[in-house]
Design brief:
Heat Shock Protein 90; six-stranded mixed β-sheet; Phosphatase 2c, domain 1; Beta-Lactamase; single chain
């Protein structure tokens, strides 16, 4: 007998020497591993895989034990699918999070992944072989390029995005921010030609103190379906706002459907929630029933109420209304059937899959770090997790609301001196964050309080050298409005607006919904009322990876930076420009422009707050340059805080960089 290569079950002519085969697998220049059985026990790993995940002892462990952090990321169901069907699955740019055991570091990666069926000696599928290629850097580069070209893409969308624009106009721009209910909404356009659809959502406070959630679905796609959707949404909104009666509002909608043929067979789900008690009434009207999820991840679907779609001959009465209760911390999700009727999915399986995914997202077992608001995570991560493997052929609408503890009202005693403005700004900003108010609304409220406080400091005790104080209060009301008051015991003086002074009250009036000033011999109270909303997300398939705004708060101190590389004299301001910082702002710009004797560009891109004191300074500086025959160019990209304020007060400025006109602002 020869001393030739050892035989693996007599197949040496096929597989080669067992040690050589093992060595080849170990040294394969790709990340690979294999699992066995329905528990997906890991039976083989190569060196690149162990190095990639930072783990060594995995052989014999079920996938769920080896990588517990992956259980909420819809990975195991793919193993189940390959094991059950014997068919390969290939997914590109698969987003996943894992924890390296060697360093304890949690990392997020993107990979091109292949799951292959592994066969036993009898040819049956016994396990799964996985190989992957890390494409994280390429994906990050692509994301960075997307951000850099965002302006160009928006312009392209404007040129050919009539459908998307139509949907944005017909759907609410946002949902209310409420003290006892956190609400979020998203709308994903269908993959097929991004055709306009008939899905809609709405959220509104009712006259009886309850809060209404609505998701509806008009049959069909295209402009006609969108137009019908718009009519039905407005009618249902108006009837609910007027009556607070679900049955009466649905009866009116049903009657209208007989006059609008395209509205027939529209399905609607309406929920009216009492934020204080959690009591809710609802009607499903042929629509999939709402899903309720607890903080701990327990799920239940509310029973369908039995009422059919509108316009098909049914009747909407008290018997069409169901009742239930939402406990503290529970989340309710309304959705359209597009999330269930995905390619290759049956309705029963999709219903279970939706509940499982939402439970993982609510308990933050899925993709971590996207948002600390469960309702917001549910409205984006659900789309990402459930459509990335199957795709989707219909519009998908998600509307989520969670009962939460209300933010405490704010009450601050403030010393009447300029040095108090920055601490006041920080404290109000912290309260706005706790109340989940951000974006433009937070900026408007913050701007208003600083203007009103500055007005008190400058004018309330102008004839007194004593130390004085005033009070700032704020609360978020059950109607989704901030009520903020600045009250002092000083003496009222009538404002006298001019191009360069006295603009604080004028600017505040332009930024918020309502400003009311009351004064008597005991002092003055200025009260701001402003409705606050959270933007809804209108998405396409390319937008599904989370793109939360970067959390880089503006520096609390004003920074004035000379820019010597610019084509001409130029200076940039970063931070707040208010009564406390305006002297430095004015002095630095005068020096950079040699007191108006040479042209100067002032870049206000990084200005986080432009108060009336800053506006007055810019008026004086612009006049100084005009008197000297030179030009002061003020630059603030469209949408920045400085642009918003200068547009409000009609102060001339440029939104395209005057020194770099061919470069798109980011």
């Amino acid at each position: 007998m020869s001393d030739g290569p050892r035989d693996d079950r007599g197949r040496s002519g096929v597989t080669g020497d067992l040690d050589v085969v093992r060595s080849v697998f170990e040294e394969l220049p790709l990340v690979s591993y294999a699992t066995d059985g329905p528990e997906h026990r890991i039976v083989a790993t190569n060196a690149m895989f162990r190095q990639y995940v930072g783990r060594t002892h995995m052989i014999g462990m079920p996938l769920a034990d080896a990588f517990p952090e992956s259980m909420g990321q819809q990975i195991v169901p793919i193993f189940d699918q390959v094991l059950a069907t014997g068919e390969q699955v290939y997914l590109r740019s698969f987003r996943a999070q894992l924890t390296r055991q060697d360093t304890g570091e949690q990392i997020e990666v993107y990979t091109d992944l292949r799951w292959h069926p592994r066969h036993g000696p009898d040819g049956k599928v016994v396990g799964v072989i996985v190989d992957l290629v890390d494409v994280t850097e390429q994906v990050r580069q692509h994301q960075a390029e997307q951000r850099r070209t965002a302006e160009a893409e928006r312009r392209l969308e404007q040129a050919r995005g009539v459908i998307t624009t139509l949907q944005r106009e017909l759907l609410p721009a946002g949902v209310p921010v409420l003290p006892r209910v956190q609400v979020s909404a998203s709308y994903l356009l269908a993959d097929a030609d991004t055709a306009a659809g008939g899905d809609w959502f709405d959220a509104l406070t009712l006259a009886d103190g309850r809060f209404a959630l609505i998701v509806g679905d008009v049959v069909g796609h295209g402009v006609a379906a969108s137009a019908t959707m718009g009519q039905l949404r407005l009618l249902l909104h108006e009837r609910l706002a007027a009556t607070s009666d679900i049955a009466a509002a649905m009866a009116a909608l049903d009657a209208a459907a007989t006059e609008v043929p395209a509205a027939r067979a529209t399905t609607v789900c309406v929920v009216a929630l009492d934020p204080a008690t959690g009591a809710l009434q609802y009607c499903t009207a042929g629509h999939p029933p709402p899903l309720v999820v607890s903080r701990e991840g327990a799920t239940r679907y509310l029973p369908a109420t039995g009422a059919g779609p509108i316009g098909v001959g049914g009747a909407f009465t008290g018997a069409s209304i169901g009742k239930d209760r939402l406990a503290d911390g529970e989340l309710i999700l309304l959705y359209s059937d597009g999330i269930l009727e995905r390619p290759g999915r049956d309705l029963a399986g999709s219903t279970v899959e939706l509940a499982t995914a939402v439970a993982d997202i609510v308990t933050d077992r899925a993709l971590q770090g996207d948002s600390d608001l469960p309702a917001e995570r549910v409205c984006v991560q659900t789309l990402e997790l459930l459509t990335r493997a199957s795709g989707h052929t219909d519009d998908i609408t998600l509307l989520a609301a969670q009962r939460v503890d209300p933010p405490p009202p704010l009450r601050l005693p403030v010393t009447a001196e300029l040095g108090s403005l920055q601490p006041l700004r920080d404290q109000v900003k912290a309260w706005l964050t706790e109340a989940r108010i951000d974006g433009f609304d937070a900026g408007a409220v913050l701007h208003a309080v600083v203007e009103l406080a500055t007005n008190v400091i400058d004018h309330a005790w102008i004839d007194s050298a004593d130390r004085h104080a005033f009070t700032v209060t704020a609360a978020l009301t059950g109607t989704g409005r901030v009520e903020l008051s600045v009250a002092d015991r000083g003496r009222w003086r009538e404002p006298s607006p001019s191009p360069d002074r006295g603009l604080g009250l004028v600017m505040t009036t332009g930024l918020v919904d309502r400003l009311r000033i009351e004064h008597d011999a005991n002092g003055t109270s200025a009260t701001v009322t402003h409705r606050v909303r959270r933007p809804a997300r209108l998405l396409t398939a390319n937008d599904l990876t989370w793109t939360a705004a970067p959390r880089n708060p503006a520096p609390p101190l004003l920074l004035m930076l000379d820019q010597p590389s610019a084509p001409g004299p130029r200076i940039r301001a970063d931070g707040p420009v208010d009564a406390a910082t305006v002297a430095e702002f004015d002095r630095t710009i005068r020096a950079a422009g040699s007191s108006g004797t040479r042209p100067l560009t002032v870049d206000l891109t990084g200005v986080s707050h432009l108060a009336s004191a800053g506006v007055s300074a810019l008026h004086r500086l612009a006049a100084l340059h005009r008197d000297n025959g030179t030009h002061l160019r003020l630059y603030a990209p469209a949408g920045t805080p400085a642009d918003a304020i200068m547009s409000l007060v009609a102060l001339d400025h440029e939104t395209r960089d005057p020194d770099y006109p061919d470069v798109l602002s980011t």
